[in-house]
Amino acid sequence: MRLLKFNDRGVLSLTEYQENELPRYAILSHTWGSDEDEVTFNDLKHSSFKKKAGYTKIQFCSAQAKRDGLTYFWVDTCCIDKANHSELSEAITLMFRWYSNATQCYVYLSDVSRDNAADSHTKGTWASRFRKSARLTRDRKLQRPVTQPSAEIFSREGRGPGEESAAEQAFRDSRWFKRGWTLQELIAPASVEFFSQGGERLGSKATLKQQIHEITGIPIAALEGAPLSEFRVDERMQWAAQRETKKTEDRAYSLQGIFGVFIPLIYGEGENARVRLQRAISESLSKQSVVPPQPPGRGLVSLPLPRNKNFVGRVQSLQEIHKKVNSCGFPRSSCVKCVVKGMGGIGKTQVILEYAYRYREDFSSVFWIRANSYESAVESYCTIAQKIGLSNSPSPWSIEKDLGRVAVSSVQKWLTASENGNWLLLLDGWDNLNDQRMDSLIPHSGSGVILITSRRDDWARCEEILDLQLMEEAASLSLLSKSSLTDYEQADEEEIVKVLGNLPLAVDQAGAHIHNLKTPARKYLSRLKENRETLSWTPPIILWPYGKGVLSAWDLTFQQLESSSPKVFEILQVCAFLAGEYISENLLKFGFNFAQKDALARVMEDGMGNLFSLSLAKREGDDDGFSIHAVLQTCIRQRLSRSPGVQRQEFAETALLVVAGAVQKLTSERQQNWFTCRQVLSHITSCEEHIDDTLLRKPVFGSTRALFMLGQFCDKFGRHDQAISWFERELNTVPDLSVHSTLECRDGVSTAKLFKGQHNEALAEFRALYTEATDQLGVEHELTNKIANSLGITYKKTGSLEKALWWYRRSLLHIKERFGEKDPRVLASLNNIAVIYKEQTKYREAFEIYHDVLRKKEESLGEEDLSTLETVMNIGILYRRWKRYDEALKFLQRALYGKEKQLGKDDPKTLAVKGNIANVYLQSGRLDEAIRLHEETYNSYKKVCGPEHPEVFTTAHWLGEDYCQKRCYDKSLQWYEEALSGRKRLHGEHNAETLETIVGMAGVFQLKGEYYQALTWYRWALVRFRERFGSEHFGTQSVERQLKALLR
């Protein structure tokens, strides 16, 4: 950010600051005059700018800032180089923040002057009359006696109906209130002062808020600094509805700060800018539950649940937990783990939640993990990563990557850092001790406290365990009274909690039942006992820890809901088969429509309140999500099992169809919400646990292809084993499955095996599939050619490049005939062929294909389309491999400019181009430039994607090569070791990228003359290349050649 200042000699200068180094500054808000009158960035290079009319505003801003004790000030006309598109784009993106961070904002109203204010009914200065008028209006609004003279600019005295003073009219009619950009300039700064053309102070945003509200329609709360998220989207849109901008696109671009979203600037797109803005707002709203990023530091608290106002008792338990977690003293030398265990519904979650709120001042940071499943735990880690500031929101470009693993690793690294000690990490609901992935979620070092809740008894490995007992009777009575909002006869209350076994979950639900149905306690008690004797269903397991009174209480509520709101009860029963920790109402609606349960989708509009008021479900945060306790879900499923499995299966299948509908909705969206996808994966896993494959209703699943869709979705997110099971269910469930659908499912199975690394098995299956598809569907069928392309991919992965090329060409031949030369499938196939030529060092053949693809994309998509720019980058990379460095830089610079323009400087796709430019510098011997750009890219990746992102370690690998070429071998080994450590954590030791780094390290040892070390690393890499890829793979053969050269 550049700031202006006048020195002691009156010379105006510009100084550039990084955002974290900015001094206090003032900022000007104004309406632009003609372009010829305004002082621009280039004008400051010549003294003639002082003759321009706009120089008056600069002088005014400087003088006013000086009066307020500020040296620096900012004026948009001359502090931005508007000829530099990247700089202009970045400035527009940061504009709201710049105004927000300003110490003072001065609004210069060039169309309000002394002449406007000369009103025959008034006396005194314009400014004093205006301020008095503001107080007068405020007093009238509060209906206080008015003691000021009545002849003020907003006063009605002396004027007929509809008449206004010239001053009021000038202020109300000022162009400043009608311009698009000035909306954020009014809203963002804390202190806004208004001035006339002559520099007279008219008042502030605080003193004139009523008048500004009347002029603009902006609520006073917003003018007073209330968070903009408190105002509806349509309401904020209305603030800008009557405002104008010189360029059509700026009507959208000027609202980015108001909605907290970013869209790339594409001047010339016209009204499409508003469409993109609305799309960005919709995506932002879908992530409202995600906690916004904060800078790293102390005092971070991430608790997704509010403090329970009905919490009672448990004083001794809370004190005992506090004693256990502090048993090692402070400062702690190591991490302390404590498990709070007990039966479901006993109140474990509420106890540790109360502990977190009660003792949060004792910890530097407090974080909450939903540990019901691996998926929900990883989701929580992603939220924490954003809270700490280790990563941005998961973006659509990386929707299929395992960002969860990156987030877990990043947060754990942060927790183990010495400067971040004394944190509290709460893992709630860790009951699945068989899932070995869950162990990776516990930090094993650091100086914090880990507090875990679990129903499992086998937690002996933990240092500290608290066995939570049932509440004492007094606490149970207090909870019943709070949840029912009623005081009853002591004897009735005592009997109710006794029948419920003092189980908090049941007592709370009973109180909600009593309150909402206005049932007298004695009557409820009578019905509870009677229902207990006639209960027609039994607990799900022999060692069920709850008495029949608990089941009776829930059954009473089930009966009531089933009678009064049968459709809502159906919804509850369907939800019993989903992952209970988080269920989205929005996705439920889509799912019910897909499952042809339209009546249930309609009921959700206003019927869900019954579940919350009866304490059968709990709201999660401020969005449309809710949760259902696992014990309650178990009871619902068991109640459905009264008949021989049929009714239960029916609801389980409906749940499955609901999830399939959610999948269909998500996959149809152009940009998918990463968190929503993770939640859906949890629901898929839950359904899989409860579905009975032998009872699947074949007609239902045959017509919807639901099982196939679930398989595709799981495969997309790396759940290859789950994907295979869903594809096989489709094959085994539907006897009349069409030939096409059968082959499609089998192709899904083989594809999952391919990406699991089972290359030989996948290859055999694809070959058989291709033969069948050719016979049954024809050689030109789309699925046939998809299988041919998969054969090409498989052969490439096994290192058989010639065979891969043959299959790619075969696939291309038929899809080109069917879809035409410019079809995306054709261009993708051509790209695959070019990649093979590049690997074979047939650079001319690869160039001819890339050039053809580029021409077709430019014709059909345009020169600046992201797909076009991707091909431009590929050509640049090809020229680098070809050692034609000037041409490489030409194409890569074009790709960089285009991606910076559309995506911004820090977008990962932009950073990928910068990394490749650095690689060109490396290979052409420009080592200092290579190191500078690689380090810049490395730091940007860490900032944008988090310190554990794969590209961070890829760039570290390249830095290892940079320093090796520079003969700084120790520095080279440091970077290679960082790359190796990260790649092994993320990918394992048999991954090609991990092995690439090991080979690089071996090369450094060889150059240092440490031949034994080099020999050890080369052999280590060779063994794993052979194990993973076979002897024919080009990577295996490359290491063999290097090893032979060393042994000579």
Report on the structure:
- With 1048 residues, the chain is of the alpha/beta class.
- Among the domains are: 1-113 and 165-244, no CATH class; 300-467, P-loop containing nucleotide triphosphate hydrolases (Rossmann fold, 3-Layer(aba) Sandwich); 473-558; 565-737, no CATH class; 989-1047, Serine Threonine Protein Phosphatase 5, Tetratricopeptide repeat.
- It is 58% helix and 7% strand.
- It is built from 47 helices and 16 strands.
- The strands form four sheets. Strands 8-10-11-12-9-13 form a six-stranded parallel beta sheet. The protein has a five-stranded mixed beta sheet with strand order 4-3-5-6-7. A three-stranded antiparallel beta sheet has the order 14-16-15.
- Helix 14 (315-325) crosses helix 15 (348-359) and helix 21 packs across helix 22.
- The longest helix is centred in the middle third of the chain and has 23 residues, at 646-668.
- The protein starts with a strand and ends with a helix.
Summarize the structure.
By secondary structure, this protein is of the alpha/beta class.
